[in-house]
Amino acid sequence: MPPKQYSSPPGLILNPTMRYSATIKTGHGDMVLELFPAEAPRAVNNFVFLAREGFYNNGVFHRVIKGFMVQGGCPKGDGTGGPGYRFPDEAVDRPYVKGTLAMANAGPNTNGSQFFIVHGQQVNLPPNYTIFGQLIAGEEALEALANAPVRAGAGGEASRPSEKLEIQAIEISEQPINPR
């Protein structure tokens, strides 16, 4: 069954009184990421929407470069797919440090469903990839994914996992910003 496609980015579903986190459930353990809706509202809104739609369920991390990043969110599992729409970049005001969650793209304003989590301590990327979260738990899962064996992909880069690195599901949690 082909992945679900959408004609346009989702309307605003985030509640400004809530704090959001995402648990990425993988075959190598769970990763919990704090999301940054105040800094990247479009990217967080999109990610929350797609996760709640089950878009990422039974997906894969299709690109892995140890010391750099792990990338997932492609519904085709090969880096060529998306949700059927694109949305604009948002300003990057943070460095790409280990555990950074950012949008993967194919150039300016081509964000869709693909994302990456930085594995290196500090990678030298230009501020072209919207940062919308940070790993807060599950570093051992990130390490396991980043250390998975890889082979050459279609472009010759040694980044295609030799084994299936499954994204079982992405669960979104929300908590009040100012609980009473």
Descriptive notes:
The chain has 180 residues and is mostly beta strands. The chain has a single domain, classed as Cyclophilin. Helices cover 12% and strands 33% of the residues. The chain is built from two helices and ten strands, in the order ββαβββββαβββ. An eight-stranded antiparallel β-barrel has the order 1-2-7-5-6-4-3-10. The longest helix has 13 residues, at 41-53. It is globular, with a radius of gyration of 15 Å. It starts with 17 loop residues before the first strand and ends with a strand. The mean pLDDT is 95.
Provide the fold topology.
Elements: E1 18-26, E2 29-35, H1 41-53, E3 59-65, E4 69-72, E5 100-103, E6 115-118, E7 131-137, H2 139-146, E8 150-152, E9 158-161, E10 166-176
Antiparallel strand pairs: 1-2, 1-10, 2-7, 3-4, 3-10, 4-6, 5-6, 5-7, 8-9
Low-confidence runs of at least 5 consecutive residues: none
How many E strands?
10
Give helix % range: 10-25%
- How far apart the termini lie comes to 46 Å
By DSSP (H or I, 4+ residues per run), the number of helices equals 2
Strand order of the biggest β-sheet: 1-2-7-5-6-4-3-10
CATH class: Mainly Beta
Rg over C-alpha atoms, rounded to the nearest angstrom: 15 Å
Round the mean pLDDT to the nearest integer and report it.
Answer: 95
Strand content: 25-35%
* CATH homologous superfamily (4th level) name: Cyclophilin-like
Oligomer: single chain
Biggest β-sheet strands, sense, barrel: 8 strands, antiparallel, barrel
Q: How many structural units, i.e. domains?
A: 1
N-to-C series of helices and strands: EEHEEEEEHEEE
Which descriptor suits the 3D outline?
globular
Per CATH, the architecture is: Beta Barrel
Q: Give the CATH topology.
A: Cyclophilin
